[in-house]
User: What shape does this take?
Amino acid sequence: MKKINLYEMYTFGKAIAPLSAIEPSKKVRNHLFELWDARQKLISMTTDDSPVLSSARRAINRLIGVIDAALPRDITDALNIPDEEEFGWLHGPAISNGVKELESVLGNDMPDISSYVASQKGIYRTDDLIAHAEQQLSVEVRRVISPQACNDIREAGKCLAYELPTACAFHLWRSVETVMQQYYERLTGKTFDAAGVARNWGAYIIALKKENAEPKITFFLDHIRAEYRNPQTHPDELVSIEEAQRLFNVALSSIEQMVLTMTKMPSAPTPK
Assistant: This one.
């Protein structure tokens, strides 16, 4: 997936448009820099991650070819073109017609390119949600949480940005559960599985309480379990985008609380 730079598309069109006015009688040197700039913009659209479709790339490559025929790629050779040299009937129409062909292909192709606008969700910038949602957590917390928890937070951010709220909640609760596991290991030196704890949040929270976990944290986790996480595991339960925004804050807050508590604890006991 590639983020489309809309300004880049604007400058691409702006650089190409003047070439359609090139005529056989015009001097090459008078258009040297606009031809050079247009060619560079065209080349940038031929890469594998270019937003244009294959048919447009073929038209772009043909236009690059006719520009190459009129203007050398070597800058020294380009600057040595005689002042009186004209485009002539060979290069002039080829360039202007190449531009018209490209415009026609783009006119057919561009409506089929899947491009969308993802609106900002609350105070979260769209770019931040898509690229690095885990940075909503403090640096101190990010140093402690596992790569799995970090990845789930990142995926939750993408889901929130792309308005997939139910999937967002799924990844949020996975990340909280992973940090619950870390918290338990810090208290006991064992995983939930190694301690024989059943695989459900209710059992996890009871196990944490037995190991004297911070009461405010277990109370908060139990509230999340009863009011949000468990109801949302049912197939007929759908999360709204507004609720997903609230849950994002709830999940990150619970993770912050667990991690900050862990950082104040002594080293975990050695497993027996």
